[in-house]
Amino acid sequence: MLAFLLTLMLLLGIVIVLAYAERKVAAFMQDRLGPTEAGPYGSLQSVLDVLKLLQKEDIVPAAADKKLFKLAPILIFAAVFAGFAVIPFTPELIPTGIGIGVFYLLAIISLDVVGLLMAGWGSNNKYAMLGAMRSVAQIVSYEIPAGLAILSVVMICQSLDFQEISYQQGILLNRFPGLEFEKNWLFGIEALGINTTNIGGITTWNIFRAPLLLVAFLIYFIASLAESNRAPFDIPEAESELVAGFHVEYSGFRFAVLFLAEYSMMVLVSLVAVILFLGSWNTPLPNLTTLKFADWTTGTVGALSGILWGGFWLLSKTFVLLFLQLQIRWTYPRLRVDQLMHLCWKVLTPIALGIVLLAGIWRLLMV
Amino acid sequence: MERTSVKHKAGFWEVVKSLLSGLLLTWRHFRNADKRRAPVPVMDENYFKQPEGLVTLTYPYEAIPVPENGRYRLHNEIDDCIVCDLCAKICPVNCITIESVKATEEIGMTSDGTKKRLYAPVFDIDMAKCCYCGLCTTVCPTDCLTMTPVYDFSEVDIKNMIYHFTDLTPEQAEEKKQLLAKQQEEMAAAKAAALAARKQQ
Ligand code: SF4
Ligand code: SF4
User: Fold this and answer.
1) B192 CB less than 6 Å from ligand 1?
2) Contacts of B51 in chain A (CB under 8 A)
3) Where is average pLDDT lowest: A119-128, A226-235, A353-362, B88-97?
4) Does B181 reside within a domain?
């Protein structure tokens, strides 16, 4: 229960910051000022937005399927929020450490799709229905390349446990029960003869341990943009062109929940990208002979310093990815539906399949 | 900046290059976000030479200065007005309302030496209707109706957009009207008396 509340608070905090950052980043990239009035530099703007939404009337259309309509936002948010249960925030801190975390995450996130369809169908509105179908088609399609990219990581790491994958990517490798005698080699290849177990830092991140995961990371990142309906794949919403997609009939608190779910999804996919590819809560600074940067910026596991450093690295890497998501939104034009499907099925999926094959071969080289 | 169009199907690396250059562009703007365009007036030679920085003007707090001879809100210097009604006649939207009362004697002189013979108990300009064409100011014979560089005069109540320029209070106006009526009565009486005297002869 404590973990639930803490994670919820953390998530709400991040989402509020993110909604504010979204406006400011958009403004700065378009040579505008963005919000300036609410609080210093407009920093209370997103808090006020939430308050405004909560005050609004909760309208349920007369012709809607009331049960589905009311349940959908909660289901969507619950599906995304449940994904946070297996995210390790620091070496010690993980809401629920289960051995099949990756599998659980992929499965629970897919529930999102059911919620979307419920919202679209329940609204009894053709635009909501069309929006929901587009959203669902997009999310279902892009789960395939994303899943394959994640699969290649799982093959390299030989684990479905997020915490174990995290430990493998840093100097704390031997602290994880069961990995006491593991060693990290440069690029994962023992034949090169460079032992990076105690060097740590960026050299043990997954994209460095098996450089072909860099491609997997790109695929995952692109697919995750589509999964969280972000530009340039925001066709279901396309706020500058369409009515709002599947949530066109929602207002007040329910809309706020949908909004929250959308931003939580952004945060979740970025967190997963950081954990699987970019070293999780491990520091990016390696130990260099006498300059023990990695030791200094890791802290002591179990002590407060370990928690703070771990949380700091995880969140700062996540925010870099989130910033990239925002920048991409304000840089690239939106894709057409056929281009979207082309990219997914004819480009990303075959490459991801190839990566999975290569990851298997790489793993053979690693042992 | 050099501009070259990207061919359709330009090849993988071309596409990657163009994607990266797009990101670079937004990043450059993001980095320049600490600079602001200076709110210089259009007369300034740097007005068109500020390619970088945020363009937003936080209006009530800062404003681009307008030229000194800007022609926005109307102003009537009522002391110089001879109430000739020319401005009201030429106004294309009929937003000037003038009522005049003849004076019983000469009231005075305008600053350019024209004699004033009329009072104006009502001289209203409805700024909400005015289209700021400036025709009234060009016909005004004494140049008392002018346009000023004031441009921010929005009101909550539209009735406040009607500007009253008269210098007479309603009582004074009533007094002047009675004076005129009395004078006219006296003149009429004198005329009648003269007529009667002529008839008797
Ligand atoms: S500026 Fe034009 S519209 Fe306004 S009062 Fe004068 S003549 Fe009428
Ligand atoms: S034209 Fe000039 S002088 Fe004549 S009534 Fe109008 S403001 Fe007065």
Assistant:
1) no
2) none
3) A226-235
4) no
Two tokens, residue A319: 């925010």
Same domain, B46 and B86: no
Tell which of B20, B25, B26, B56 to mutate to test the A interface (max A CBs under 10 Å).
Answer: B26
pLDDT per residue as tens digits for the range A247-282: 888 988 999 999 899 999 999 999 999 999 998 888
Residue-number span of the structural domain to which B29 is assigned: 10-65
Q: Which residues of A touch B58 (CB under 8 A)?
A: 33, 36
Residues B132 and B79 in one domain: yes
Going from the C-alpha of A98 to that of each of A51, A82, A343, the distances in angstroms are 36, 13, 34
Q: Which ipTM value was assigned to this complex?
A: 0.84
Q: Does B151 contact ligand 1 (Cβ within 6 A)?
A: no
Beta strands (DSSP E) in chain A are 287-288, 291-292
**Looking at the complex, does the CB of residue B194 fall below 8 Å from at least one CB of chain A?**
no
Query: Does a structural domain hold residue B27?
Result: yes
The average pLDDT across B45-71 equals 86
Orientation of helix A126-157 relative to helix A252-277, angle to 10° = 20
Q: Which of B122, B135, B133 is nearest to B162 (CA)?
A: B122
The mean per-residue pLDDT over the stretch B194-198 comes to 91
Hey, is the C-beta of A33 within 8 angstroms of any chain B C-beta? yes
